[in-house]
Each structure stands twice: as C-alpha cells, then as structure tokens.
Amino acid sequence: MHAVTDEAALRPGSEDIYRPRFVEDDEGYLYDCGFRDMLTGRGIDRDQVAAAEALRAVVIAGKVVTQRFEETLVKHGLTHPQFRTLMAIRYGAETGLHMHSIAIWLGVTPRNVTAIVDALEALGLVTRVPDPADRRAFKVKLTALGEERSVAAMRVNKADQRAVLGTLTTEETKQLRHLTMKLIRAVKEPEAAKEVRQK
Amino acid sequence: MHAVTDEAALRPGSEDIYRPRFVEDDEGYLYDCGFRDMLTGRGIDRDQVAAAEALRAVVIAGKVVTQRFEETLVKHGLTHPQFRTLMAIRYGAETGLHMHSIAIWLGVTPRNVTAIVDALEALGLVTRVPDPADRRAFKVKLTALGEERSVAAMRVNKADQRAVLGTLTTEETKQLRHLTMKLIRAVKEPEAAKEVRQK
DNA sequence: TGAAGGTACTGAAGGACTTCACTATCTTGC
DNA sequence: GCAAGATAGTGAAGTCCTTCAGTACCTTCA
Fold it and tell me: What's the rounded mean pLDDT across residues B56-62?
C-alpha cells in the first residue's frame, strides 16, 4: 500500500484546486455559488449566465469523474485510458480488436491508441497479433494476465461508478444521459439537432 | 483567413473519430446505440449498463463541448484555457487577479497558470504587475489589446454556447446543471452527498 | 525578534493527447 | 491487370496539463 494520496493531500499544488460552493436555488437545483457571484451584476443577461453555468458544470463533471476513476485505477497499476482500452478489447470482440476500432471506442486518434497499446504491451497485458486478413493491421488481444487485471479493475471501477452515481435516482441517471447526449448531438450533428428543435 | 479546419477535415487521423449513433429509447431519451450494443448480452446487469452509459455521455459531452469552443477560438488566435483565463481576469477583478485565483477559477494547478499567463503575456494580452501588498505575488491584468481580443472572443463564444445549448429548453438547461453538479458533489464531497441521499 | 510553518510562483520532468508526414497495404474502377 | 486513391499503423514534434522540488516571501506565536 503506498500512501501517495495521503502525502499528496498535504502538498501545496496537489490540493484540490476546484472547490465549488454547492448551493440550491429556489427550485432545489444545485449551482456553484462562487461562479454565479462572479458573473452576476456585470450586465450579462440571465440566459447567458444559465448557459455558462450549465456548460461549465458539464465540463467539470466530465473532468472530475475521469479523475476519480483514475485515482482508483492507479492503485491497480492502470491509467484510465489503459483501462478503457482493456474494456474495449474485452467487450469489443473475442478475437481481438483492430487499433482503429479501439480508437473509435475510446474517442481518441489512432496515433494515441498506438501509444496506449505500446504501454499495455510493455506491461504484458495485451499482444499485437498480425491480422491474416489484412497485413497492414493488428488484432490486439488480452493476455491471461490482461484478462485477470481487467476483471479486477472492472470490479473496482464498477464500485466507483456506483459511488459517483449513487446520489442520483434511476430516472435522474437516464435524464443525465439524455441531456448530455443532446449536447453531444448538437455538437456532432448540428443539422439533426436543429430539425428536432423545430418540431 | 486560414483554411486549417477545411484541410483538417479531409486528412486521415483528423477526422471525427467518435461518431455515436443517436437513438431514442421508448421513453424518448437519447442513447448511443453502438455503445449499448457492445455492452448488452454479456451478463452485465441493467443498472451498470445505465451507469456506464450516463457517465460515458457526461465525459464525452465535456470533451466535445470543450473541443467545439476551441475550434472557434483558434480562429481568434486563442486556445480555450487562454480564453478562460482572459474571462477570469475580466470577471474576477478590475484590479487584476492573482495567479492562484486564476488557477481556482480554471480548476487547474497554479503551475499551469504560469504557463498560460506566459503565453498570454507573449501575445501581449496581459501583463504581470507586482503586487505591492505581497511581494511574492503578481496581479495579472488585461492590456488594451487583451481587453479588445477578449471582448471579441467572448462574443463568438456566446454564440457557440447558444449553438450547443440551443436544443435544450430553459428547464432542461437547469436540469443539466443540477445533475452534473450533483455528480461533482458526489466526487468532491462524498459525505455531504450521502447525507442528502438519506433524507 | 526570530524561528517554524504556510503561501505564491516557477523550473524540470513526464503523461496523454493532438496534428502532420510517412510507409505499407488494400480496394476500386477503368 | 494496374494505376489512383483510401486505410492501418507509426515516428516526430508540439500542446496542455500534471507532480515534484525549490526559492522567495509572509504570518504567527513563543
């Protein structure tokens, strides 16, 4: 057991920089009091404050959730992208997954997958197997060790997910998925999103 | 006008790697069909699939929104962190802001703010003014050029925010803020979040 | 007043990710 | 059957961010 986290908590620069003040508005919805204070009384219209608050919350949520997962995974000798790659291979295909497919699952560039798989291969968790059907490509497969580690990591990650989403009801979780997917669609498919808006 | 984005759109590796298939479930809530397909029929319980979907959507939403903003800002010669720093200074204090305060606003480490401010100073958009009240510290202030640029960038960013949130109603925007803030609180203040859960 | 500990900032090193440029291979259409 | 163009993967270089370590300065309290 390494006491990295305990030490880190004491060290300047490592402390948790973002410390929002969670307050409920008159409808019972949470907001970050510090941020709202900064923005109010400066001639910014109400809608824009609402927009800025929501988008800021989404971006920060994505970040802190990722960091939260990373913390646990580090104890299992994995980074978050490494873990996600193992999951991609586990769930993507029994026969191994092409680098490009991993990139799509992770939502990163193929070049980045090269680096992640390099690291996983160095750890002995995956192997690159030449694809007989396409001599440019590899199938990336889990080794026995990789299988074992990914199962263990998945178990703790499952607990983390529960911890993070524990305060949300089943309905709220679905709402959250829906609203963030709407945001993603607005960015990825502006036209489709507009049509929906007009109905 | 540089045609960076047009060229990039044609180049392999630069294409949009994550291309979700947006589908509505029977309640009218959006989900990513490709991801759900990967996970179903593999002995994963329904709750965990729901959790994984929601968290994945949050993380991706944070990422794509950031990228979307970045794209526009690049045309104005600013990165997203640079822009956010300018905003922090504009809204944080008329008299200039300490590096540490900027770090808190941005939610990054003080060390990182040093680098961002270095870049902004090199661009001539801000200046470090020694703080007479604390000789360790600087007040970072906008220059006239920085003022001008930040106003212009703010205008386009406002339009971007509207574009991204355009498909959400006012109520949905508040819901989104609320749910993501709940997530942030669950990570940042696990105890407080648990209490709420028990009421 | 002066030692102990905390705070503001920065250098060095490193991780994750990106774009650009390149090789090797596959696919298509004439 | 073969040239033109697409696709799979990687090297090089650069960005943003991190942690760790170090300097200068402030604050506190005996």
Answer: 93
Tell me, in Å, how far CA of A67 is from C1' of D29?
A: 39
C-alpha span between B6 and B170 (Å, rounded): 34
- Chain segment A5-57, per-residue pLDDT in tens: 333 333 444 456 777 889 999 999 999 988 898 888 888 888 999 999 999 99
Residue A117 CA to residue A81 CA, distance in Å, equals: 10
Picking from B21, B26, B58 by the largest number of A CB atoms within 10 A of its own CB, the best residue to mutate is: B58
Q: Any bridge partners for residue B98, and if so which? A: B139
Q: Which of B55, B64, B171 to mutate to test the interface with A (most CBs of A within 10 A)?
A: B55
Give A199 to chain B, closest Cα distance, Å: 11
Mean pLDDT of A155-175: 93
What is this structure's pTM? 0.88
**B33 vs A: CB within 8 A:** no
What whole-number distance in Å separates Cα of residue B30 and Cα of residue A131? 36
Inter-CA distances, B49 with A64, B36, B54, B68, Å: 20, 8, 9, 28
Given this model, what pLDDT does residue A61 score?
Answer: 94
Within 8 A of B92 by CB-CB distance, chain A residues are 38
Instruction: Please name every residue paired with B138 in a beta bridge, in sequence order, or none if there are none.
Output: B130
Nearest to B71, CA basis, from B25, B16, B109: B16
